[in-house]
Specification:
The complex is a heterodimer of chains A (296) and B (294).
Chain A (H helix, E strand, L loop, with lengths): L1 H27 L15 H14 L3 H13 L13 H5 L2 H27 L9 H15 L2 H11 L4 H25 L2 H8 L4 H39 L4 H11 L2 H29 L2 H8 L1
Helix pairs in contact in A: 1-3, 1-12, 5-8, 5-10, 6-8, 7-8, 7-10, 8-10, 8-13, 9-10, 10-11, 10-12, 11-12
Chain B lengths: L1 H20 L33 H36 L3 H14 L3 H11 L6 H16 L1 H15 L2 H8 L4 H37 L11 H10 L11 H16 L2 H11 L14 H8 L1
Helix pairs in contact in B: 1-2, 1-10, 2-3, 2-5, 2-6, 2-8, 2-10, 3-6, 4-5, 5-8, 6-8, 8-9, 8-10, 8-11, 8-12
Classes of the chains: A mainly alpha (296), B mainly alpha (294).
């Protein structure tokens, strides 16, 4: 019970802290009260008046960040300062786009990692056969490429889709852990017995290795989700995908506090889900991320 | 062997960039409006960009600028992490909890998201040099939390160790223990963090630059050149436009090969004279560091 409380309460507390800090940061940002209409000579007096009104009506930065936290806890996201429409209306058409992109990218990445890691898992050590050496070299090259560089290269060359870039970014990182994980489970006695009995590779993988490694695989999924969330911003911005990450980017540039608070919350919830997945399994498996590295 | 070759290549690349960037009479900021988006020629071996600037010189300058600022930022972040970890380890109870909570809060959102939010909140109309410095300072300011946990764990292990008790029993002062013994035990871990932070910070600048929030024009940077690359799909056909991206990936790859965290970890174990040590502190994960900034 205590364990469950700490697993759920800690991320919740962190979410609120992050939320409050983000609002505080944006509220204290230079030019928060500036209005682009002030540049228009015909409207400048009106814009100045409106800015003065907004400044007079606003609370202190700390009060505003606490209020924003309380509003979000009550499920109220407020109205966008920039677009002048409710934040929920802004998020509604965008989250399915981002979810589809995440699903497509992560799906492709996991499939590719499994397909590449499965044939090489029977070798005892990393980099033992030629195929694995080639795969490792390719993975190393892809790991060295930042998500922004991958997206820029894809846009400039005209090849690839946002989901493919996301898959290319996450797949080598997943593969690195997955190959070690599978190799560790293939070395188990019951798998060795199945291999000695002539059970085909796909049945060993689906019937013995994956069920045994499921907790670690779930934890690895949590980590890959966090990785993909981080890579979404340059991908959505450069490919002009109308998703949540692009909205976060434009709202950050426009200092649109309610939208920033909402998008930060969505992203932080995604990260928290990944962290909870990992934490829930930590007792049973140890810290998967590090344990896998140690095993390698 | 691979590490040595990677290090040699890295040094050669830096020397080559120095030779290209400091050739007399050339500058990455010099514009030739009659030669916009020109293909490779004898005068411009890698062609020109959309403002007629020499792409090779700009790429070399970007390498030098980003690499040197990343080294400085990595140094600052490591020093900050060490200071914060010392404060956390020394102050048991609430101070320690608060420090770790602050570091966890910064890690609770993806690094690039956090960087973008903070960078967009800062003035966007500063001079190019000030912005470059500010960008890397920001990356350093947000880069330390990932280092703190391992340093605190290492510090606590040492604080409860036999040699520490022996030092105290011998009447050594706190500063003597810190300077003479603790620093020697901690330096290998800090060195590893420092080396891993350099590529992570390069990636962070590149990703910020792609979004237009990195080092601004006219200063050359990898992020800025990647943004130009993304915008050049319809206007430029020369393959040399991929040079900055290729150079960035090449340098990151060389850094990846030159600094192997597992080997660094074993070096740490050899150098730290741990007679009582049971090394249960996990090695910093490069994937995590890159993810933080990517």
């Amino acid at each position: 019970m205590t364990r469950l409380a700490s697993v759920i309460l800690r991320p919740l507390m962190l979410l609120l802290l992050i939320e409050g800090a983000t609002v505080l940061l944006v509220r204290l940002a230079p030019g928060y009260f500036s209005n682009s209409n002030a540049l228009d000579p015909r409207l400048s007096a009106m814009a100045a008046e409106r800015t003065a009104q907004e400044r007079a009506a606003s609370h202190s930065a700390v009060v505003e960040s606490v209020t924003e936290d309380l509003n979000l806890l009550r499920g109220r996201m407020g109205t966008s300062r920039y677009y002048q429409i409710p934040v929920s209306e802004l998020l509604q058409p965008r989250w399915p786009v981002t979810l589809r992109l995440l699903g497509g990218g992560l799906g492709m990445a996991w499939l590719a990692s499994l397909v590449v890691a499965a044939p090489t898992m029977l070798s005892r050590r990393t980099g033992q056969n030629a195929l694995e050496k080639i795969v490792l070299a390719a993975a190393l090259l892809l790991i060295a490429a930042p998500s922004g560089a991958m997206a820029a290269l894809s846009v400039a060359s005209g090849y690839g889709t946002p989901a493919m870039v996301l898959a290319l970014f996450t797949a080598p990182r997943i593969y690195r852990f997955l190959s070690v994980l599978l190799r560790t489970h293939v070395a188990a006695d019951h798998v060795l017995f199945a291999r000695a009995g002539g059970v085909p590779l796909h049945r060993i993988l689906l019937g013995h290795v994956i069920p045994g490694a499921l907790p670690e695989l779930l934890a690895l999924f949590g980590t890959s989700l966090v990785l993909a969330l981080g890579a979404l911003i340059p991908i959505e911005v450069l490919f002009d995908v109308p998703g949540l990450a692009q909205l976060a980017f434009t709202s950050a540039l426009n200092r649109d506090v309610p939208v920033i608070a909402a998008t930060t919350l969505v992203v932080a919830v995604g990260v928290a889900v990944g962290a909870i997945l990992e934490d829930c399994l930590a007792d049973r498996q140890g810290s998967t991320r590090f344990a896998l590295l140690e095993a390698e | 062997m691979i590490r040595q070759v990677a290090r040699l290549c890295l040094v050669a690349l830096v020397l080559l960039s120095l030779a290209v960037a400091f050739r007399p009479g050339v500058s990455g900021e010099m514009q030739d409006r009659d030669r916009l988006n020109e293909a490779a020629s004898a005068h411009f071996p890698a062609g020109t960009d959309e403002l007629g600037r020499d792409r090779m010189v700009r790429s070399a300058e970007a390498l030098l600028l980003c690499l040197s600022l990343s080294v400085v930022a990595a140094l600052a972040a490591t020093a900050a992490a060490a200071g914060v970890a010392l404060a956390a380890a020394a102050g048991n109870g609430y101070p320690r909890t608060l420090i770790l909570l602050a570091s966890d809060s910064l890690l609770a959102v993806p690094g690039l998201f956090l960087l973008m939010m903070v960078r967009a909140s800062l003035p966007l109309n500063l001079g190019a040099r000030s912005t470059a410095l500010l960008t890397f300072l920001l990356i350093a300011a947000l880069g330390w939390p990932i280092m703190v946990r391992t340093i605190v764990a290492e510090l606590q292990r040492h604080l409860g160790s036999d040699w520490m008790r022996y030092c105290r029993a011998q009447g050594l002062t706190r500063s003597q223990i810190l300077r003479t013994h603790l620093a020697a035990h901690l330096l290998p871990l800090l060195r590893t963090h420092f080396l891993l932070a350099i590529p992570a910070f390069l990636v962070a600048e590149a990703n910020l630059g792609v979004l237009g929030l990195g080092v601004p024009d006219p200063l050359p940077s990898w992020g800025g050149m990647l943004a130009q690359l993304a915008a050049s799909s319809l206007t430029v056909s020369s393959r040399w436009r991929y040079l900055p991206a290729a150079l960035l990936v090449g340098v990151l790859l060389l850094l990846e090969l030159a600094v192997d965290p597992e080997q660094e970890k074993s070096t740490t174990g050899e150098n730290s004279h741990r007679s009582d040590a049971r090394d249960d502190t996990p090695a910093p994960d490069r994937g995590d560091l890159l993810e933080t900034s990517a």
